[in-house]
Amino acid sequence: MKCIIIDDEPLAIEILVDYCSKIDFVEVLGTFTNPLEAIAVIKEKKADLIFCDIEMPQISGIDFINSLDNRPLFIFTTAYSQYAVEGFELNAVDYLVKPIPYHRFIKAVSRSKELLTSHEKPLESNIFSSHGETNESQKFIFVKAEYESIKINLDDIEYIQGLKDYLKIHITNTNKAILTLMSFRELLDRLPPNQFLRVHKSFAVNVNYINTVQRNRIVINDIRIPIGESHKDTFFSVLGL
Q1: Residue 85's CB: how many other CB atoms inside 10 A?
Q2: Minimal CA–CA distance to 128: which of 138, 136, 137, 120?
Q3: Number of compact structural domains in the chain
Q4: In this predicted structure, what is the pLDDT of residue 181?
Q5: What range defines the domain where residue 155 resides?
Q6: Which of 74, 99, 120 is the last residue of a domain?
Q7: Per-residue pLDDT tens for 34-87?
């Protein structure tokens, strides 16, 4: 897994380089104190993962990640915990607060490897689309839950809730919810984008079940789901509101 490290503090870079050197599947392509100098390497060498500080003099890590087209997986590394919500709304793999414990670093890198592998080999992920159909026309998916694969009709999914490393898929006309070990990115890549929308770092909804839309929330069968700031424009645009 090829990575780059961006941080305006050389000591922070040294620590991450040392951590990476202890993991055999991680290769550091380059380190940068100026995020703008990393762009060429990201494009030319096709980095799989970016470790990125947030508060930097040239440009914030959040703005830098936002500026990238077809961005790789990324992990924020920062001394400030107050950016965590915004970081995860960008679909960061993880958010590591300095000083970064080695065990937390290992967990974040392992998660990145799992996500990367699942995209390179979609048939080995925790979800399978109906055979022979595209995302626009598929009627069901299979997801792995504990020791079995469960078939779920797409029209039965009301909304999806993120719980750390798991997703909770809420099914209509039942109190049952299916818990599966996967990321929003994995799941939404395999669902029809005209039917399922990410509306918050912790929620995606089936637009067919929306009862009402308020300024900052959606109501689905008396369940109030927040609309995240970074998702508002896309959500209201898709619904024509």
Answers
A1: 14
A2: 138
A3: 2
A4: 84
A5: 127-238
A6: 120
A7: 999 999 888 887 899 999 999 999 999 999 998 988 789 999 999 887 877 777
Tokens, residue 113: 């490897």
Nearest to 33 by CA among 68, 1, 57, 63: 57
Residues 105 and 132 in one domain: no
Q: Which residue, 94, 120, 146, sits at the end of a domain?
A: 120
Rounded (5°) CA angle 39-40-46: 90
87-140 pLDDT, tens per residue?
766 778 888 989 999 998 998 898 888 888 765 433 334 444 443 343 445 688
Q: In terms of domains, do 225 and 133 share one?
A: yes
207: which 2 tokens?
A: 């637009």
Please indicate, yes or no, whether residues 116 and 7 belong to a single structural domain of this protein. yes
0.85 surpassed by pTM = no
Which domain CATH number covers 73?
Answer: 3.40.50.2300
Three-state DSSP string of the chain: CEEEEECCCHHHHHHHHHHHHCCCCCEEEEEECCHHHHHHHHHHCCCCEEEECCCCCCCCHHHHHHHCCCCCEEEEEECCHHHHHHHHHCCCCEEEECCCCHHHHHHHHHHHHHHHHHHHCHHHCCEEECCCCCCCCCCEEEEEECCEEEEEEHHHEEEEEEECCEEEEEECCCCCEEEEECCHHHHHCCCCCCCEEEEECCEEEEHHHCCEECCCEEEECCEEEECCHHHHHHHHHHCCC
